[in-house]
## 1
Amino acid sequence: MKQKLYSIIYASSSVFMATMIIAFPQEVLKASQRGLDVWANVVFPSLLPFFIIAELLIAFGVVHFIGVFFEPVMRPLFNVPGVGGFVWTMGMASGYPSGAKFTARLRQENQLSKAEAERLVSFTNASNPLFIIGAVSIGFFHDQQLGVLLAITHYTSNFFVGICMRFYKYHERNHYSLQHFSITKAFTQLHHARLKDKRTLGKVLGDSVIHSIQTLLIIGGFIILFSVLTEILREVHIAQFLSGGIAIILSWFHIPAEMASPLFSGMFEITIGANEVSNTNTSTLIKAILVSVILAFNGFSVQAQVASILAETDISFTPYFLGRLLHGLIAGIMVWLLYVPVYKSQLSTNDTVISTWAQPSVDNIQHLYLLFEQMGFIVTLSALFIYVVILVKHKS
């Protein structure tokens, strides 16, 4: 009976989507173009280098080296092996859903147990600095200093999520003896891992490009799909109805009802939600809190991307989702606590430690984001051409 119910729900949802696409062709086209623009100009060119490099690092055994190096840190803090340090840092640098991709890859390599992979994926899917500072803070809010506040709270709160999730399936933890770092042992692990991979250098490079672009094509499909879905929900007034319920919840925290609609959009797609929050007429503090919650929750679009990646393994999606809820709660509280000391103090003086440290990085990220907007599509098109060439050669 349960499976029959699922069949009815899936079929009905598909028919509904198809009907709405026919009923609102212009709106659907604009939503598709918006999603494609985000993917081709920013997401694809920013993630592709990280994905390819990560594949090479795994193939050449560097991840094994990093695993030995980070073991004394990752085990006590997060109850995961040292290779989790690679996923954590790469996830922060490249942004979601990189953490899920790298976790799944290491699980397939048997470098993580099921429980360890579920702990790791719960806190390694963060937004990258390019999106937080370049797109959200500078692109939407036109406020560089807000980017520093959002970045600090986003990554710090994600760290606390990792601390909390270390107790997930704690009774299933593997017995291990904490080892000190040894350069000799780390290099030995690297060497053995490289010898274990029998592929030639050309094969490794080709596979890295193919696997990376295939993952990015899936990500692009989800971005466009959820952009269209959000627009359809608006056109049939379902979004407005659900936003009314969100407004009631927001009133408990004395947040204006006008923030309900942007928060609803952000629950589906981060970019749209953050942009709508920036265009509302309310205090910067409330805007910052809601944007931080949206960034932490990841949106159903990113969550669907993560679910599709994890589906190739035995990693459960539930810990990741629980981590998103916890991340959103902690991030919102941290913005409220740090708003005055981090954001207001930077506006009042340019001589603070944080401003001096952060300003060069903010400027570099701004220049990088502008470069992606200008050259991103060319990079995407060129990479897709190379992908087709390599794929044809592998097939022949």
## 2
Amino acid sequence: MLYINGEWVNAISGKTMEVTNPATGDVIQAVASGDAEDTKTAIQAASQAFQTWRKVTAKDKSSYLRSIAERLRARKEDLARTVTEEMGKPYKESLGEVNLAIDYVDWYAEEAKRIYGDTIPASHADKRIMVVKEPVGVTAAVTPWNFPVAMITRKIAPAIAAGCPVILKPASATPLSAIKVFEAIHEAELPKGVANLVSGSASKVVGEMTSNELVRKITFTGSTEVGKKLMRDSADTVKKVSMELGGHAPFVVFNDADIEVAAEGAVASKFRNAGQTCICTNRIYVQEDIAEQFGKVFASKVAELKMGNGLEEGVDIGPLINEEALEKVEDHIQNATSYGGTILCGGKRGNNEAGVFYQPTVIQGATEEMKIATEETFGPVAPIFTFQTDEEAVRKANHAQYGLAAYCYTKNVNRAFYMMEELEYGIVGINDAVPTTAQAPFGGVKESGIGREGGKYGIEEYLEEKFVSFNLG
């Protein structure tokens, strides 16, 4: 079902699409598949709702968001199971994602009450200058399949808090999680048109979002290639955009680091969600004199990871999202071995013929010529490169195109600050492999994105400053 103007409806065309479990290949359910007409209806509903929602008090907006959070909290186990069924991540990871999603709603329930303006000293005695912040307007949000709940709340919670009605387009692979979120929104009795859900054809739904002049803001999480297209398509109507795009995170390990701790951090960063996260480690750089030791410790930990259906007890690695993703992993590994890379563990497809599984893999002796050195793998493959000096580590870690997240392990405080300052990334984890949290800004530099999500910074993406000058003379 689609959720438009406070009601559950079928697609105007009557079309549906199937949702498949990547761990089993089974069809879970068929859901409504919307198109441009459904999207236009949702946009019109949001535009009408904007006239009243923008004037709702901060206290009342906060109350609605708290109510949504309470309802999400009451169904978090069901939500987590849905996430695992439709995209494959282990249940314990899904539950962690749902808890993070609720944290975003809780946070922005409070930020709704903290939208402040300014009074500026005037240059003339008979003038007064004010700056007030107002909602940008109708917002279109496009979310990915790898975090099908947290990416929704990270976008719609600050939009609602700021006074912006939203139309959400979830990934076609994971619409069931979005439906569950909107069930909570419906139960919270959010006013009609403030939050709308249109699943379906990306080209038709998003095409209407980018071309419709009633939409004043586009927020997107996904690949850099698609993000660039959305920016181009939004240019004709000069929409405000925020983009969280691709990453190619380096993980730097110095010889003064605790190897056990660094290896555990690398496992946590690289293999969460089977390597299908935008901030997961893609390149591990280890100082040359400890590279062999680190490789052995790291590979031994990776080899212990249990692969299987995410609903099974003790599973650490679930399936990839589809066959295309698996083929990309295989291509990167084959390319790496052709350039002399050595597989320390993994390197094969899973033995589950129905699902899309690939063994968690570690490659020693990675070089800059390999595809994996420059292309985002988005899979459970960890290549180990080496470096000698701090300067070389920085030079190799910084990427010409990507700048989302980077990690560094060292016990040297001076070195930690040096790396923090020299790494050209929007997020830097120093001895921290899992930095994401609701109260901090998430986003990248270069071609990894524009704008930030999370924390007090996230709500700014949905506000405009209005300068007002009073002449009292």
## 3
Amino acid sequence: MWEEILKAIPIYFFCMLKFILGPTGGYAAGLNLVTTILTTVFGMMTVVFLFTYSGNWLREKVLNRFIKKKNRSAASNQRFAAIWKKYGLPGVAFLTPLILTPIGGTLLAVSSGSPKEKIIFYMFISAAVWSVVFSVAIYFFGNEVLPDFIKPG
């Protein structure tokens, strides 16, 4: 049991940066399928909680100090606005594991002014569903489609 937990810790941190690294890392580390799913969800949700409850503070105190307002790209702001206008919070949550990173998706949701409870709810549903889909696909088809250096053992 302790060995499984120790293997899951780096996977947890990888999921905080990029969602797909959870299922592939869990598979490569030889983790149990359920452990991989839970670790992936917990990794993403840690970032979601962190940025949902401290996102405004981070933007005001940290980012504004390092990024001058005139250097911010109007094109990137328009891209985020277009994503938000087209898909809304459920769409952004759905796209976060696929296209956006947990950090990027959460910051986009927080910057829209959505209620924190809704952000957490939609992100959790998205993380749970995509974690199961990716993990099951990788665990069942991994030997056929993944490179040799990712395969366990």
